[in-house]
Amino acid sequence: MASLSERKTGKGKGLKVIQFVCPTSGKRKGFRLGRMDIKRAEKILTKVEEIISCTLAGIPWSDELSRWVAALPDALARKLSKAGLVPTIRQNAQIGEFTKNFLEKRTDTKASTRRALLTVHLRIIEFFGSEKIMRKVTSADADSFKVHLLTKYSRATAGRTLRAASQFFRAALRAGLVSLNPFAEIKFPSEKNRDRMFFVTREILDRLLDACPDHQWRMIIALSRLGGLRTPSETLLLKWSDIDWARNKMLVHSPKTEHHEGKSSRWVPLFDDGLRQILEDGFHLAAPGETYLINR
Description:
The protein has 296 residues and is mostly helical.
């Protein structure tokens, strides 16, 4: 698979050379290691063989191999890159510039998602500094960032931030800016904050409805508690034309699940618990030609 040789004579006497068959092209290639002790050269040979095996098998590098590649001296990293064994790394990509460009290119995401990613971008800059070289962010740095987040925010917020940070570095890995994702081994805290969970009883619901300043607020609360709609994303998309009064149900459009096949919308029954009456009252109060249930 790969071989190590040493020149015995001539001007290049003592130079170590690794030769191998490229796993993608099938061509024989090689690169010089220079003069080094045999044990170090044999270790590099072992790693080269591991890289080739992973490529042939179509499997990702192990964590140990990723860390080894990430820690390579620049000169050796360039040699492996030129030989086609590791991605070409653009050495000086800064974390602030990359995350900003990443956000500008994500025109495929919803505004709320971009706002969330922008918040993560700002937290990363606050911690690492905008000029931090991406390839120099280590797993230890990622651990420190996690500790920082947990001391400043809830576990749910820290979990969301770390997942997004990992998303940034996965994109940088695909772009050839880094050789590994330092957040790959991080255990993300749960994004569910159970301390904030609270069951809204019917008694509390009635008190909420009585306290509403107008009927649109009554519909928002009723759709959330009695209809089970995600609020605000699903509630604000609901149109009067989505309500099938005859069949006692409504068509709910879900932007959060629309990217899953068959999950862009769902039918929800108008349960006999006051929801229909609240919606009927809202329909009679709506201005002629009004499209959405919630119009502001």
